[in-house]
Write a structure and sequence with these properties.
single chain; 3-stranded antiparallel β-sheet; 43% helix; globular; binds iron/sulfur cluster
Length: 244
């Protein structure tokens, strides 16, 4: 979604869950080329790793790259494009090899989503009372031979309307990003490299794909939050991880 969108333009594009829209993906593959902007959430990585019978670490090594967000200062994971036309690495023989569990940003198109926060709760740290809203993006591909509703489109990709993992992840971004930004003001670069390494490990990689995602994310985040407020302990834990 365009980050320059104003609250007004968001509201204008917002659609009800039972609103219908016309769209049929003709599988031309264009949206899977010239892409270096497909940001993955831990849930995306978890679902795709499970589908491909890999661990999240194996998946990340094979298909992803990591940058530090210029504003959030969090590790941001994106799919690593390949070939001359910067093709998504998950596009094989013109087909998405993870179609049923593709990243939410791909699955949602032509929809997008955002968290709406009530005016009086604006600026508060907790997103617990926020609502997931959906919008219809401008469509310039496919054809209009099918009619869908938002509700039915999401269920086709097994995405919950009030997606708990999406809300929880946004909360994590807000909280962890604040902690990391604070650390950057006092810690040297070597320590920050260690912080980002541990953050990436706990936020995106330390999952058992045979178990439920959300409780594992909650445990990992609580562990990370503790370590970010105790840097000597974080260094100790990192030493043990590297030794193992
Ligand atoms: S994950 Fe699938 S749908 Fe998304 S860009 Fe890659 S190949 Fe295309
Ligand atoms: S979403 Fe659009 S660009 Fe992407 S494969 Fe379908 S029709 Fe082509």
């Amino acid at each position: 979604m365009n980050s320059n969108m104003t609250p007004q333009s968001l509201e204008e594009m917002t659609v009800d869950l039972d609103a219908s829209f016309k769209f049929h993906c003709t599988q031309c593959g264009k949206c899977c080329e010239n892409r270096d902007d497909i940001i993955l959430s831990p849930m995306d990585i978890f679902r795709m790793s499970a589908e491909l019978k890999m661990t999240p670490t194996e998946f990340s090594v094979q298909y992803c790259r990591v940058n530090i967000g210029p504003n959030s200062r969090m590790p941001i994971v994106t799919l690593q494009p390949v070939g001359a036309n910067d093709r998504c690495p998950l596009l094989k023989n013109q087909k998405c090899i993870v179609h049923k569990v593709k990243p939410s940003v791909c699955a949602l198109f032509p929809l997008g989503r955002y968290l709406a926060i009530e005016k009086e709760k604006f600026g508060k740290d907790s997103l617990a009372d926020s609502k997931v809203k959906y919008l219809l993006q401008p469509i310039d591909c496919g054809d209009d031979s099918e009619t869908h509703t938002v509700r039915e489109w999401l269920s086709g990709f097994d995405i919950a309307l009030e997606d708990e993992a999406y809300i929880a992840w946004n909360q994590v971004i807000s909280d962890v990003s604040r902690q990391i930004q604070k650390l950057e003001k006092t810690q040297d670069m070597l320590t920050m490299m260690e912080v980002w390494f541990v953050a990436r490990l706990l936020l995106y990689l330390r999952y058992d794909i045979s178990k439920d995602f959300l409780p594992q994310m909650q445990e990992n985040v609580s562990c990370l939050t503790e370590l970010l407020s105790d840097i000597p302990r974080l260094k100790e834990v990192l030493k043990n991880v590297r030794r193992a």
